Automatic annotation (TrEMBL):
PANTHER family: DISEASE RESISTANCE PROTEIN (TIR-NBS-LRR CLASS) FAMILY (PTHR11017:SF271), LEUCINE-RICH REPEAT-CONTAINING PROTEIN (PTHR11017). Keywords: DNA-binding, Repeat. GO terms for molecular function: DNA binding. Pfam families: WHD_ROQ1 (PF23282). The keyword Signal does not apply. The keyword DNA-binding applies. This is Putative winged helix-turn-helix DNA-binding domain-containing protein. Residues 5-56 form the Disease resistance protein Roq1-like winged-helix domain. InterPro entries: Disease_R_plants, WH_DNA-bd_sf, WHD_ROQ1-like. It comes from Medicago truncatula. GO terms for biological process: defense response.
Amino acid sequence: MDRNDVTQILNGCGLFADIGISVLVERSLVTVDDKNTLGMHDLLRDMGREIIREKSPKDPEERSRLWFHEDVLGVLFQQIGTKAVEGLALKLPITSSKCFNTKTFKKMERLRLLQLAGVQLDGDFKYLSGKLR
């Protein structure tokens, strides 16, 4: 992902992206190539995801971040999101596009990052967190 895009997203979440990215590069946890693309080793990414998953292995709605499509779909279809959720990513192929009502996100009061692809939202956007940037 482009470093400028990542910086914009992180700054929008109230984080100090330039300082944080510099520290991560110094510690060799992320890389920035000559095309300004930010990279991270897959094992490091997976370790971070596992740390989040272990905090609530059976109740994904209690995690701060949701990215695994089965967990995300379960939380959205059952409308069981909680204020613990700060980030949610769901990328579906266009052939299996899903539609969710915005009320599904009502309890996710701390949601700051929402990445959706192949997903349609229907309803009033007042139900989405005011912390989204």
